[in-house]
Known about the structure:
Elements: H1 18-44, H2 66-69
Amino acid sequence: MNHRTSQCPGRIPSSSTRRGFLQHASAGFGWLALQSLFSRTAVADAPLPAKAKNIIFCFMDGGPSHVDTFDYKPMLKKHQGQPIGSKW
Length: 88
């Protein structure tokens, strides 16, 4: 079966080369860059002006900071090394 003429679009032929892969990858990145250029012109031609004066920006990449979640336990040093079941 010839993979280049098969009816499976998107399938990478088994005889593909590094050069062919780099050509396809660079064409894909070029297409992404071209789309971003076109999207900037579409946003610039927005018919209505923005009405917002303030925004709330929430950047939630992970959990809360270790500084915000630190819970100091002053009795911990006093009871260090004791079994957990002992009465404090």
